[in-house]
Structure formats: C-alpha cells, structure tokens
Amino acid sequence: MNRRVFLRGIGGAALAAPFLSSLHERSASGQATASPKRLVIFFTHNGCLTDRWFPKVENGALTPDALAGTTLEKLTPYIPKLLVPRGYKSLNQYGSTQTIDPHDQAMGSKLTCALVNDDTTRYATAESLDHTIAKQINPGGVDPWVLTVGSASSSIKEVLSFSGPGTAFPATSNPTTLYNQLTGLFGKASASGTPTTPVADYHVMRGQSIIDLVKDELGRYQKLKMSSGDQKRLSDWLDLLRTTETGGATPATCNSDAATTLGVTADTVKAASAGGGFGQGLGTAFTLGGDMMMNLMALGMMCDAQRVMILTYPGYVTFNWDGIVHDTDHHGLSHRNGSIAVGGTCKAGVLDMIAQIDAWYAGKYARLVGLLDSIQESDGTLLDNTATMWLQELSDGNAHNLNNLPIIIAGGAGGYLKTGYSVSVETKTVGVGSSEADCSGTDTSVGFGTGSNTGNVAINSLYVTLMNAVGCKGADGGKVTQFGVFDGSSATGGITKPGEMASLTTAG
Questions:
Q1: CA–CA separation, 12 vs 272, rounded Å?
Q2: Quick one: residue 113, left, alpha or beta (phi over 0 = left, psi -120 to 50 = alpha)?
C-alpha cells in the first residue's frame, strides 16, 4: 500500500487516533500507562455484630457461599476484587496503655497508632495515616479529602483525621463545597488562554467517536482501488480503533459530561446538600448527601484532584430512613440497653436493630465499590487502582474492643494487594467474636466485654502494606517499613515489628 496515498486518503486522523492523549492510556496494544494509585477509607462508628459480619472463610478463597447470610452478602458481585484481612487490632485499647473513654481512644489512635492527649480535647498526639500518604502521592502533596455526612464536629468522638500532633483536620460536610472545587477543573485553559485539552480529545470526551470524526476521510479512502489484503488491513485497523474506543463502560474523563453521567449537576448537588445537623434533614444527609459525596469522590478521581479520601458517617444518630424506623440512637443500641450506660437490661429487639444498621452500611459500601468499579481507566477500573477500605471504630460496640477488627478492602491498588481472599494474619484461629452472647433468647441482661479475645496483630503492618500499595516510599527511597508511634501495649516500646504484611500482597 502506498504510504503517501494512505495518509492523503485518510487525512492522517485515524492513523493518529491511538496516539491522542486521552486514548493513549487505553492503547489496544495492552501497553497502558499506569493509573494513579489511591486510598479510600469508608468509616463507620460503634462496631457491629461481628458474628454476623465476617465471611464464613477465615483464611482462604472467598466464594458466594462464604458471604451468604452475612452482613457482607451485598458484596457478592465483587468477590474477585475483595480482600478481608483477619486478626488485626487497632491501637490503643481501653485500659491498655491509656485509660481514657474508649471512644476517644479508638478515634484518636485509629489512624495514628499513637496516644491521645489527656487534656479535654483527647486529640491524637501524631499525624494520621491519610495525611502521611497524601504528602507523598497527592498531586502537589495537597491535603486529603476528609468528608462526612450531616454536620462536621470537632469532638474527638467524631474526628478521625489529624494534620499533626494535637491538630484535628476539619471534615467537609456539604457536597456543594466539594462540587465547587471540582467544577473549577473543567475546561481549564493554559496561561495563553488556549484550552488545555486537544480538540480531538475534547470531541472524544464529548462522546463523539474517533471514527465519526474522520468518517468522511475514511469513506473516500475505502473507495480507493486497493488489494484485498489492504482492504483486510484497513478493516482490521477500524476494528482496532473501535475496540480502543469501547474499552470500558464509563471513561475516566474530567468534564461536565462525566459529572452529569455520575448524577452530579448543580441541581442534584443542591438537593443533596439540604440535609444536615442532628435533627431535621439528617435523613437527607445520610441518603442523598452520602451518595452524592461518593459520586463526587469518583469525579475527584477522574480529575485526579485527589488520591486520598475518607468518608465518615456520624455515630450518634437515630436511623429513620430507607425503611429503618428506630427510636434510639446507634450508640445507645450498640450498648444493647439503648443508652450511654454500661450494663443494665437489653432493649427489646436490639440485635435486629443493630443488624439493620450494619446491613445499611454494607449497602452503602457496596454502592461505593460498585460505582468505582463501573468507571474505566487505562488499565482497569477506578476500583482496581484503589484500595477502598471499610474501617470501623470498634469491633463489638458493647465490648468496645479493638481486636478482631472487621475490615474489608475492595480493589487491589493496581495489583499490589491480593484479592478474592480472606487472609488471616494471626497464627491461630481468630473466630468471629461473641456479639450475641447477651440479649438473645431469654437473656435480657447486658454484659460488658462480650468481644473476642483473639485477633491481636497490631494494625500498623496493615497500614504499612497500604502505604506501599499506593506508592509511598520510605526514608531511603525503598519500601515503607513502619508507621505509627508504637505497636504494642506500651507507648514507650516503639515499633517492634516493622514491615508490611506480605501475606496480603500478590507477591506474598
């Protein structure tokens, strides 16, 4: 085939198509440019019914049967992309190292592995994981996104993120605030005033096919006299272009059309921002508001505006939405007696009420996982390139224990994390705890300490594993080997078992 005739006939447009910047990352040759790696933390309060939450497989491949009948059953469609690390303990537990309100300890130490101040704030004495990671992997090292539904609070019982010792990082609770930040990224121009997006790329992002853009040239060229071999090569080339274009369901582009596809418009954001506070409108905040925050998180990834995100749901609320009708707040239910007191008599139907809340949160986590998995990137989906972790304040809300933590991670952070498995990091059987030791059958007396005695591996190694998974480096430029202030029962002991947990990685 005459190269000059080919270029003249097709105008060079289709030949150049795979090298347009928006498509180069999805090259049909399979040599895709690596996408950013990210960490997302989905955080909930007051623990759960651990005996219903965990998969039936403690250490081994996950199957639909392993999730059937559990709180995590809604995640069955995503089993190949799930990792359930078993046997971890968060630092520091009530009565061990410090004797301060267990909720204050659980929050202040959760992402810092450090003590909390013994003043009235009870804030952490170290920087939290999200800030440590954001400084390394965020564009420009900008602060992470810390989001919450309802109203943000400065109380340690609701604060999870710390930009430094004793410095709580405020959470964003209004979806409109986040939306306004993102829309400023659409169609940005260079200093000369020229749009930063190439014209061809712009049309592709607007939904026009490359082949549509050059169809006139293609039509003229196909009418030229050529051999059957050349006709076959041209047909194969068109198939290659079409395959390149349709590589994923929703391309990860950053523009207003992508936002609209996600259900993010000025009107929908306004409607989702109507809720707030801990009274009227809270149902809107937990439903429309929380869902919109997830949509905005996905858009933030598509715009590469943020690679480290936390989404929290307040813990001291009464569920009255999505078919749940409660007369007692979640914290009181977690105590089994319907109040802030410890012990006493079980509230009628309390276990079923907690199970309803656990299932509702599982549904929201599944929504986030499904959303990220529906958006295509160069080498997979947003979910594939992200570690999306559901992390809980406590294990059992009545025992207030921090061992045997219910943790699940969706997405392998670009293939670094093992997926499709439940992996025990303990050397002995962990079990599922005893959340229903009280308040079941004829037992109406609330005990304290009905949690598990197993699952005591320090969570530091999980955090180190996640840091390496998303691309953080140690001080020497190699892998990260430790995180936190201590990893045992003594704050003066330092880090005694540095390094990541190899069994959670694809290399382990």
A1: 47
A2: left
Distance CA 91, CA 491 (A): 10
Which tokens in the block code for residue 345?
A: 């008599």
Give CB contacts under 8 A, 24+ apart, made by 260-266: 262/295, 262/298, 262/299, 262/371, 263/292, 263/295, 264/179, 264/292, 264/295, 264/296, 264/299, 266/179
Looking at this protein, which amino acid is placed at residue 143? D
Res 295 pLDDT > 80: yes
pTM: predicted TM-score of the whole model, two decimal places: 0.83
Name the residue among 41, 38, 40, 39 with its Cα closest to residue 392. 41
Given pLDDT bands bounded at 50, 70 and 90, which one contains residue 7?
very low
- As a whole number, the mean pLDDT across the chain is 85
Task: Report how far residue 68's alpha carbon sits from residue 175's, in angstroms, rounded to the nearest whole number.
Answer: 34
Report whether the peptide linkage leading into residue 92 is cis, meaning its omega lies within 30 degrees of zero: yes
pLDDT at 265 over 90: yes
| Long-range contacts formed by 118-124: CB under 8 A, 24+ apart | 121/156, 121/166, 121/168, 122/156, 123/156, 123/159, 123/162, 123/166, 123/167, 123/168, 124/162, 124/165, 124/166
* CA-based end-to-end distance of the chain: 51
Calculate ∠ Cα 173-175-176, nearest 5°.
Answer: 120
Query: What pLDDT was estimated at residue 115?
Result: 94
Q: Which domains does the chain have, with CATH numbers?
A: 35-192+253-504 (3.40.720)
Q: How far apart are CA 371 and CA 227, in angstroms?
A: 47
- Listed range (114-118, 168-172, 211-215, 301-305) with the worst mean pLDDT: 211-215
The confidence score (pLDDT) of residue 238 equals: 58
The alpha-helical segments, DSSP class H, found in 119-226 are 129-137, 175-183, 199-205, 210-213, 215-222
